[in-house]
Amino acid sequence: MPMSVSEMMSPGTRAFWDRSFAGRLSLFEALRGRPAIEFHAEVAGPGFWSVVGYDDVVAVSRNPEVFSSAQGFTIDDVPAEIREFAMSMIAMDDPRHRSLRSIVQSAFTAASVRSITARIRGHAHRIAAELPRGEVFDFVDRVASRLPVQVICELLGIPDPDRPRIVDLAGEVIYGGGEDFATGPGGALGLAQIYGYALELGERRKAEPGKDLTSTLMTTVVDGQSLSPSEFGSFVILLITAGFETTRQALAWALHLLSTHPDQLQLLRTDFAAHIDGAIDEVIRYASPVPYMRRTATVDTEVGGARIRAGEKVVMWYLSANHDSTVFADPDRFDITRPNAGRHLGFGAKDIHHCLGANLARTELRVMLEELLTTHPGIRAVGAPELLLSAFVSGLASLPARV
What we know:
By secondary structure, the chain is an alpha+beta fold. It has helices at residues 5-9, 21-32, 54-61, 80-86, 96-104, 110-115, 117-129, 139-144, 146-156, 163-174, 188-207, 213-219, 229-260, 262-270, 272-287, 318-321, 358-375, and strands spanning 38-42, 45-51, 67-68, 137-138, 292-297, 301-303, 306-308, 313-317, 380-381, 386-387, 396-398, 400-402. The strands form 4 sheets. A 5-stranded mixed β-sheet has the order 1-2-8-5-3. Strands 4-12-9 form a 3-stranded antiparallel β-sheet. The radius of gyration is 21 Å and the shape is globular. It starts with a helix and ends with a strand.
């Protein structure tokens, strides 16, 4: 007997995420056509509401008093002690969230990112120059994984010899610590090791400051407050995992989508400056590297025609909202000239948790794609990607490519 929509949406089964990407989009289209949002069961949890329409996702995002982040941002419930040390601002409500964000946000303004663009370009140029010519390689491994981790490690002042280990730990956390199928970050040992490393790094920079983000954060005081060692450790986990993985996946999706839509690739090649911003927005809209975030209702309320009780989990499916035909015409078409692609929710809904690193991610994507198309005008994906089995990351595990 075929599985029901609810069964396929349950994070306890892989049926939904085993489908092709087009199949995932079709399932969300079916959910958006329902008269009300639906409640989905969990194998080891109380279940959750799926918010799939664009307007409903925005409404939930922008109402943090009713929809709290403090109980966790993944479908699975995470013990309070793990949330406290591993989930940083992303699992906080105001005023604590506002206080911490005000300390770190200056490092991610457009002006701050412009100041390091030359260094980002240097990394991107080397990555492009080292690609093998005339043979197939894994774009995820050789390009998409390398730039964001180099940028983040350099920002934090992580020494070169330590960087491969940080990459491994980030992957362990993001992909569920070796689980066959991940619904959210896992790998408690990986979390603990990143946290411990961050504490040591922070103490070293506090004693001997340098010109890196770690030194800045360990010495910055805003309204009489500075980051505690534990807060800094949690922030590093967030930056290494979220900042690394989302940009990595956006780069991988960019090559895949441009290669499978050669007319769009030709547009970008012909006038890079005119089309790159639209291309970045369209890649993020179409692929939605972060497919969902969760909130918890603080009071009885109503969303999308459904009555939600206090304490129930509400999952905002960005991947679905970004393919809502009431906002994006012909949403499953990839079009870098789409006039309203910038309305995507890939970085959030301009709410209190809007992605702190959006400027940095855009710059990395712009610079890496420019270096690739300049050095290797004929670069393209040459085979089907392998989709990640992770409900928390809409991503590619590998992508064969050739220059």
